[in-house]
Amino acid sequence: xxxxxxxxxxxxxxxxxxxxxxxxxxxxxxxxxxxxxxxxxxxxxxxxxxxxxxxxxxxxxxxxxxxxxxxxxxxxxxxxxxxxxxxxxxxxxxxxxxxxxxxxxxxxxxxxxxxxxxxxxxxxxxxxxxxxxxxxxxxxxxxxxxxxxxxxxxxxxxxxxxxxxxxxxxxxxxxxxxxxxxxxxxxxxxxxxxxxxxxxxxxxxxxxxxxxxxxxxxxxxxxxxxxxxxxxxxxxxxxxxxxxxxxxxxxxxxxxxxxxxxxxxxxxxxxxxxxxxxxxx
Length: 281
Prior knowledge:
With about 280 residues, the protein is α+β, with helices and mostly antiparallel strands. The protein has one domain (about 20-265): Clam (outer membrane lipoprotein receptor (LolB), chain A). It is about 25% helix and about 35% strand. It has a twelve-stranded mixed sheet. A hairpin with a 4-residue loop joins strand 5 and strand 6 (about 85-90). Helix 3 packs antiparallel against helix 4 (about 215-220). It starts with 18 loop residues before the first strand and ends in a 14-residue tail after the last strand. The relative contact order is 0.20.
């Protein structure tokens, strides 16, 4: 789900900052099918039932995503224009219901366009979609996502892992190399917020798409994996388009301000307000 530029650091010019025990996950995403794209290094910060996802790049304009389980809402922070938006379940479900018909039409149109392209142009377009984290076959999809535990084992970045695969009908869309939660520092706190966030999104997607398939099925299935995915590969047409690896975990105190919008950023409405009707005049 979206990530962002640098973390706000600890104490600044003697201002007292409230801190809490937390867990920080360091991750790296690469794009095997697109050699020209540089890896992205990101951070997930966890404290209690709050989680923050960001990209650690100086001057980066990517959005930051903050999950506030204490308020059952998501905050989307836009570092490009220094604005932020809050989305509770009702807002996200309403947005999904508005977008669903358009997404289904987009999926049909994109698949039809790709089907009629020469093979070399189709391959080029699929690479372009993949580089932006998109899979044309899954846009607007309501297909069930099934998670299968394979029993295959491997050590990834020092973590003993078991392989899980995600399938949509006869197509493999992802694989996850999962380690036992007990091997993750601060696992009790982290496990709770990940499950809470997965349930939040499952309810949102089921309400938005009126289906147990598609994104809702994905989040529901993720909750069935017995551990944390140290390595996740996303596939499109049998090719790996992204690889996301856990590169480190540390227990450390996290300033509570990390889970609020940065000072000076302006709050915006997530959904545009409807213009007043002129009927009756």
